[in-house]
Amino acid sequence: MSGHVAVVGATGAVGQEFIRVLAQRKFPYSKITFLASSRSAGKPIEFAGQTHTVQELTEESFKGVDIALFSAGASISRKFAPIAVKAGTVVVDNSSAFRMDPEVPLVVPEVNPDDAFKHKGIIANPNCSTIIAVVAVWPLYKLCRIERMVVSTYQAASGAGYQAMVELEEQAREVLAGRKPTPKVLPHQIAFNLFSHNSKISENGYNEEEMKMVKETRKMFHDDNMQITATCVRVPILRAHSESINLTFSKPVTEQQVREALAAAPGVKIVDDRVNNHFPMPLESSDQDDVFVGRIRQDISQPDGRGIDMFVSGDQLRKGAALNTVQIAELISR
User: Which fold has domain 4-126+321-333?
Assistant: First the structure.
């Protein structure tokens, strides 16, 4: 039994997914509290056959709370997570606030579960695109150390929040009706278009999303020498991210070895039907727990046999956020 559980940011897209996942996985608790901003306080939430009222998040919200799942943005996490820890709460945080803090473990349970137990009150949930990549890549890293990873992402609107999903649907209707859509949430038209990920560009030319993938993967793999480069793109998909991943191993690795490692890996579903040209698609990976992996093939540009290409797809709201957070909570509650 996990005792008293709180969900912070309960009315947002990820918060709503938290609630779905907690219910579906029958997460053990003695009491549950749903917290959000003053704008959302008072709203009803149905959970486990009961109607709960959303409470306003305040500095007094964590008295008696054992585990708090946060998904209310980095600024809220930076303010309230230390307050929660001081009250004796263990925080599993879905924002970027603490991911690269050396004192805070960054955890994907299929990759580095032991790190979760080194926490000092806060455990960070990685970025969604990083989670989806590492679930597929870690089993191969265990097979043979990976020297270099090249990732190109195809990221869903859900990564920018619920209103971005609404904007995609509204813009699609506008374009089909012959009207010119006006972007409000995202910087460019998302319907029938794609563009570089809408995060700040760093001095090195990489955007923040790309650098998150680099830094977070190294931290979880405990390998600062792993060479990683990423290109992150926003595409007109509602809620599942897809990624093209090219790997260079330290030694030759065969396609068969890769398939066997992935087949035995938790959280992975192989979708790799060459005959019918059926591979991972966001349409099929949406609302699924597993990361779908396919297009597994030897990289012909690396004749020494050290290169593998693959394509993955995973639900951004689910494994990329809520499910991973709940899995961490399950891990530390055992």
Answer: Rossmann fold (3.40.50)
Q: Do residues 213 and 149 touch, judged by C-beta distance below 8 A?
A: no
Domain residue ranges in the chain? 4-126+321-333, 130-316
DSSP calls for 295-307? EEEE-TT-TTTTE
Task: Identify whether the C-beta of residue 21 lies closer than 8 Å to the C-beta of residue 323.
Answer: yes
Q: What is the pLDDT of residue 146?
A: 98
Cα–Cα separations (whole angstroms), residue 202 to 199, 208, 212, 309 = 9, 7, 12, 28
Does the structural domain 130-316 have CATH classification 3.30.360.10? yes
Contacts of 225 (CB under 8 A, 6+ apart): none
Task: Report the alpha-carbon distance of residue 91 to residue 25 in Å, rounded.
Answer: 19
CA–CA gap between residue 313 and residue 201 (Å, rounded): 25
| pTM of this structure | 0.95
d(CA 238, CA 73): 20
| pLDDT at site 334 | 79
Read off the DSSP letter of residue 181.
Answer: P
User: Which residues are designated catalytic?
Assistant: 128, 241
Angle between helices 13-24 and 162-176 (to 10 degrees): 110
Q: How far apart are CA 43 and CA 258, in angstroms?
A: 48
Read off the pLDDT of each residue in 245-252 and give the average, rounded to a whole number: 98
Strand partners for 124: 93, 106
> How much is the mean pLDDT over the chain?
97
Whose tokens are 């398939």? That residue is: 259
What DSSP character marks residue 273?
A: B
Whose CA is closest to 111, among 309, 291, 250, 306? 291
> Is the per-residue pLDDT at 1 higher than 60?
no
**Strand blocks (E) in 250-290:** 268-270
Per the document, the length of the chain is 334
